């Protein structure tokens, strides 16, 4: 579809209760899974941006580009890639909408559910009369493979100071199949190792100080006792 054609297809969406029936989280997930032939189990998993990109491409062909979507996304930089594609799709169809990428990418339920409610209204308006809106067969197959793999990103492990083992790192790298993912895991492991070493050094430093204070206290106490005896 040309840019002009996509522009002509634009219909303003009024965010009113009349625009779309208010659905529960389970009904929303059922709609998403039916539309993209996916297996999403949590609203939070939509933070990957995959489903949004797929539905946008279904409504406005060539607004996203199926080959550009990282359908196996499970790391934050991959979520960011997909959500930026999604944002650019609105620009291509000349529709003014700011996607709250920074909030969606954190994978919180409330942020993702609120945006999904808005997007369902957008879909209902723009899918009207498009009975044949379907996901391409190849995209269906890819979606079914990895819709359950979207998880919290590794940069949230800052509170857990145990570095990943070599085996777990290799496993994650094999699952992602991406050199960038392997590099990301290695950098995360190295960073955690440095933080652990720094904490241990600080602990040893203060422990030594406590020993020094204890030794000084003993000498002072001994001197005082000797003075009293004299």
In short:
It is found in: Cytoplasm, Cytoskeleton. The protein has 2 domains: 3-151, Calponin-like domain (Actin-binding Protein, T-fimbrin, domain 1, Orthogonal Bundle); 157-229.
Structure commentary:
The chain is an all-alpha fold and 230 residues long. The protein has 2 domains: 3-151, Actin-binding Protein, T-fimbrin, domain 1, CATH 1.10.418.10; 157-229. The protein has helices spanning 3-8, 25-36, 50-59, 76-92, 101-104, 109-126, 137-146, 166-176, 179-229. Helix 3 packs parallel to helix 4 and helix 8 (166-176) runs antiparallel to helix 9. The radius of gyration is 27 Å and the shape is elongated. The model is unreliable at 7-15, 137-142, 144-162 and 170-176 (pLDDT under 50).
What is the beta-strand fraction?
A: under 5%
CATH class of the largest domain: Mainly Alpha
Order of SSEs, N→C?
HHHHHHHHH
Helix vs. strand class: mainly alpha
Helical content class: 55-70%
* CATH architectural label of the largest domain: Orthogonal Bundle
Show unreliable segments: 7-15, 137-142, 144-162, 170-176
Give average pLDDT, whole number: 77
Shape: elongated
Number of strands: 0
Question: What is the first-to-last residue Cα distance?
Answer: 103 Å
CATH superfamily of the largest domain, by name, is Calponin-like domain
Q: Write down the CATH topology of the largest domain.
A: Actin-binding Protein, T-fimbrin, domain 1
The main β sheet shows up as:
none
Radius of gyration: 27 Å
- The total number of structural domains is 2
Enumerate how many helices there are, as a single number: 9
């Amino acid at each position: 579809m040309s840019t002009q054609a996509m522009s002509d297809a634009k219909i303003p969406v009024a965010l009113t209760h009349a625009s779309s029936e208010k659905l529960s989280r389970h009904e929303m997930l059922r709609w998403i899974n039916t539309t993209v032939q996916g297996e999403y189990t949590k609203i939070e998993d939509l933070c990957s941006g995959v489903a949004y990109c797929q539905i946008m491409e279904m409504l406005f062909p060539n607004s996203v580009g199926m080959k550009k979507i990282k359908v196996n996304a499970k790391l934050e930089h991959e979520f960011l890639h997909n959500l930026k594609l999604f944002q650019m799709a609105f620009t291509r169809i000349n529709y003014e909408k700011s996607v709250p990428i920074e909030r969606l990418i954190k994978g919180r339920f409330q942020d993702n559910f609120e945006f999904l409610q808005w997007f369902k209204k957008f879909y209902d308006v723009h899918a009207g009369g498009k009975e044949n809106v379907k996901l391409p067969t190849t995209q269906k197959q890819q979606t079914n493979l990895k819709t359950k793999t979207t998880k919290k990103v590794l940069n949230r492990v800052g509170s857990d100071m145990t570095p990943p083992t070599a085996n777990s790192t290799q496993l994650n790298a094999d699952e992602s199949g991406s050199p960038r993912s392997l590099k990301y895991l290695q950098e995360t492991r190295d960073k955690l190792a440095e933080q652990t070493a720094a904490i241990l050094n600080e602990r040893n430093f203060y422990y030594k100080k406590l020993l020094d204070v204890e030794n000084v206290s003993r000498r002072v106490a001994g001197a005082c006792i000797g003075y009293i005896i004299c």
